[in-house]
Write a structure and sequence with these properties.
mainly beta; Jelly Rolls; 41% strand; ConA-like_dom_sf
Length: 223
């Protein structure tokens, strides 16, 4: 098709524009930088927020949330994580010996919580000293016995309503969720009572697809 008379042909320019590699890249956080950017540190207790980076690990103190958060510093998570296209989150974590309470916790809050809010839905996984549980969406009621005071590698795989959670390579949750929910778009490490220590967090908002432009499939290349 010829361009409109008197107007430039922009089709070639669109094809030739360099595209940044966002979605499809593994996003690792190894907690080497004490500033924690682009993560936000938020507290709600009397003592305020407290999270410390030391020797490549992050310790989150009571009543503190460390989050890649919507409307804060831009991140790949808040820009493209979407349950409909799928995402992976992997992390290595343990609770401190001061973790108090059960997984469903006081007022529905566990000692530590992983907040997984994508652009369409919200998932919350709780941790106590002896259990992990699927807290939200409400009504799912999945609880797994686990010694969370020890280091474990967790791998969360979400494809639409299909959710899998692996602990040290073993699937402990493999469910099609019946419920949906919503909340703040963000990836959060949240501690209520006691402490939690995180060795790393990695995520991929386009697992299994080589991508070049945010939210679109791209072409794999080498060299």
């Amino acid at each position: 098709m010829a361009p409109p008379v008197g107007g430039p042909d922009v089709r070639a320019a669109v094809v030739l524009l360099p595209a940044p590699a966002w979605a499809g890249d593994l996003q690792p956080e190894e907690f080497e930088d004490a500033a924690l950017q682009p993560w936000q540190v938020i507290g709600w207790g009397e003592d305020g927020a407290s999270a410390k980076v030391r020797d490549g690990t992050l310790t989150v103190d009571p009543e503190t949330l460390v989050m890649l958060r919507e409307e804060a510093t831009p991140s790949e998570w808040t820009g493209s994580a979407n349950r409909l296209t799928g995402f992976d989150v992997e992390f290595r974590m343990r609770l401190g010996g001061d973790a108090q309470g059960g997984c469903t916790g006081e007022n529905g809050t566990p000692p530590t919580l992983l907040w997984v809010g994508d652009t369409t839905d919200l998932l919350q996984i709780g941790f106590s000293a002896t259990e992990l549980c699927l807290l939200y969406p409400y009504g799912e009621g999945h609880v797994v016995t686990l010694d969370a005071l020890r280091w474990h590698r967790y791998a969360l795989e979400v494809r639409g309503q299909h959710v899998r959670l692996l602990v040290d390579g073993r699937a402990v949750l493999d469910e099609i969720l019946r419920q949906t929910g919503g909340g703040t778009v963000g990836l959060g490490l949240e501690t209520y009572r006691g402490t939690s220590t995180w060795d790393y967090v990695r995520y991929d908002t386009a697992p299994g697809r080589a991508c070049t432009i945010r939210g679109t499939d791209g072409l794999a290349h080498s060299g």
